[in-house]
Amino acid sequence: MLIATGAVLLLLVAGASMALYRGLKAIAVAERVQERSRAAEALLGVAPMQPILVRADLRIEMPPRVADLFGLVQPATDFDGLSAAGGGLDPLDAEHVLSDVTALQRSGKPFVRQVRPRGAARALTLRGAPSPIGMSSADVVVWVHDASEAQAEVERLAAEQAQVREAFDALTGLIEAAPMPMWYRGPDLRLAMVNSAYVRAVEGAHAADVVARGVELIEGSGQGGPLAGATAAREAGRPEIRVLPATIGGARRSMQLHDVPLPNGGVAGFAIDVEELEEARAREQRFAEAQRAMLDRLSAGVAQFGSDRSLVFCNQPFRRMFAMRSEWLSDRPEFDRVLERMREANRLPEVRDFPGWKAERRDWFTRTDAATEETWHLPNGVYIRVVAQLLPDGGLLLIFEDRTEEVQLASARDTLLRVRTATFDNLFEALGVFAADGRLQLWNNRFRALWELEEEFLSGHPRVDSVAEKIAPKLRTPNRAKLVTELVRSATTDRQQRGGRVALADGRHFEFAAVPLPDGNALFTMLDITDSRRAEQALRERAAALEAADRVKTAFVANMSYELRTPLTSISGFAEMLHGGYAGKLTAQADQYVAAILESVGRLGTMIDDVLDLTQGAGDTPMARETVDLASVARAAADDMRQMAVERAIDLAVEIGTTTGEVNGDPRRLGEVIDHLLRHALSAAEPGGRVLLHTDGDERRARIIVSDDGAGMDAEAARHVFDRFAQPSASDRGVRALDLGLPLARQFAEAHGGTISLVSEVGVGSLVTVELPR
Prior knowledge:
Blueprint: H1 2-46, E1 49-54, E2 60-61, H2 64-69, H3 79-82, H4 91-107, E3 111-115, E4 124-130, E5 140-146, H5 148-177, E6 182-185, E7 191-194, H6 196-201, H7 207-213, H8 226-236, E8 240-248, E9 251-261, E10 267-273, H9 275-297, E11 301-305, E12 311-314, H10 316-321, H11 326-329, H12 335-344, H13 354-362, E13 371-377, E14 383-390, E15 396-402, H14 404-426, E16 430-434, E17 440-443, H15 445-451, H16 455-459, H17 464-471, H18 481-492, E18 498-503, E19 509-516, E20 522-528, H19 530-580, H20 588-616, E21 626-629, H21 630-640, H22 642-647, E22 651-656, E23 662-665, H23 667-684, E24 690-697, E25 701-708, H24 715-719, H25 741-751, E26 755-761, E27 765-773
Parallel strand pairs: 22-24
Antiparallel strand pairs: 1-2, 1-5, 3-4, 4-5, 6-7, 6-10, 8-9, 9-10, 11-12, 11-15, 13-14, 14-15, 16-17, 16-20, 18-19, 19-20, 21-23, 24-25, 25-27, 26-27
């Protein structure tokens, strides 16, 4: 019993445990199902589509969210509720949806319909489908999707598609109408499309024919062929540009080929005719080379900077002016570096803020005005004119002109003008400058004061006729004023210098002249000669008085000489009678006295003859004109002086050259010339000395030389040795107190057109030279 009872209890406990286990398991499964149901509801609540369950009897089960999508206040329960007043669908749309649902219930074919709730801008997409497994087969699930955004995107894409199509059609038309050849290559780089310009360039029938035959615009193959650019563009992923020759219309043209890679692997291309551009570029290159060659020949320095502000060109004067080395300039230095190098070479003005100064010059690249000009004053006194010209390509052209000489000349000119003005105004002469048209341009104070002209009148630059009218009353003879007009016209028009003299009414005298100037003007000068006229008149009167006194003196000397000859002749005659013994025989001593008297009478007679000759003068000396053998005259004169030389124990040497020849003149006077020279030399020589007579000549002249080795004379005595009646100095030893020989020799030599000169040295002797023309 106990065992049975225990067994029953054990079974009951086991059954209860099993039931408890299954209950707990069922609770856990229910909780998981409930959790999944809540998750499904949550997912369904945020799903982009919401379901509507349509039962077989066409009743509708609609979530509140779907009612909101249809604009319903509360969920509809049938199709009539879908078109409720104030919301829902249009009745016609509701009927269409009902028809779709009915058809789905019958055939099981899903449907899709677009509807728009009344009064709302949203679009709803209804997708009908059979009910899922586990529900009645007559039930239908209609999924509602808010397709407003999708519909707007569809409409936008449709509009874009239309625009793209329109743009594609326009681009196609543009490519077809383009005047340049254009083409498209497929991924295999074969021609797939060409335009009409391409067809005309290759002389094809039509585009299809050209594509079919693969006619290329550029001949050749390899790197220079038509596919080289397309291949390079597709490999590099960027457009490729080349310039190749092509034959178009029977003419060789330079074509710029552009190959553009496309995303689909194809390559589009077009060709631009750059033949004229290449020719223009070549002309521009030749022009640039010629321009640079010309700039190298300029004296001004020229530097050209590119748009990147680097030096692209400079001529030789620029390099010399700023001490730039060619190897440094070859690196194309930047503008700032060039200015710094100029500063290092001391070729820039001294400035306190060099960075600021440099920044201002850097602005030349961006200034809008055409050109900038300034002057640099360098420390070493050099002036440089700088012109900065902005170039069309963004570069800058700088011209450096050394104006140092011009500035110096301008300064010198200004100084000369100031000096001229000061000199002009302070001259004693009255000056006026008349232009080529006869107007007075310049005048000095003396000119204005002389004629008492008003400054206002002169400032109007009057003509010479008006000036002549103004000055006419100031002249002693008013008609002489016309002479001023004639002189100015002669100097300006005929370029001839003329002058004269004029007397003023106040008694003053002026000398005037009109001088042509190099610039075509005329200088009219007037000099006050009143004082000089008075001095000239006084000198004339004095000269006349002196000439009269000289004539009286000459007449007196001549008369005295003739008067002296009478007693001298008597003395000479009686002395000769005594010497001849007519008065009885004289003692030896008395005979010596008589001989001395005769000698003195001879000397006195000679002196009187000399005085008479001197009083006559060179122009009054009676002379014969005949051919004279100068050698014979010289020998005769030497023979006459031979006795005197013997008496004084002097060696008289005579050298008659074979070239002495003949002269035209008076033989007696020529003999007296040689006689006076020899007499002077013999008187100056010491006993035992030597006197030389030498003659020679050439085809134009004859020469007579007389020298002695006497005491000579100093320079002062030599200067006056040819003066008439000059007294010898104390140092003239051996010279007579009144020696007229040399003055007479000079007078006779000059009467023959010759010259006479003397060279003497104290203690050595003297040498006299006479030159006579043939």
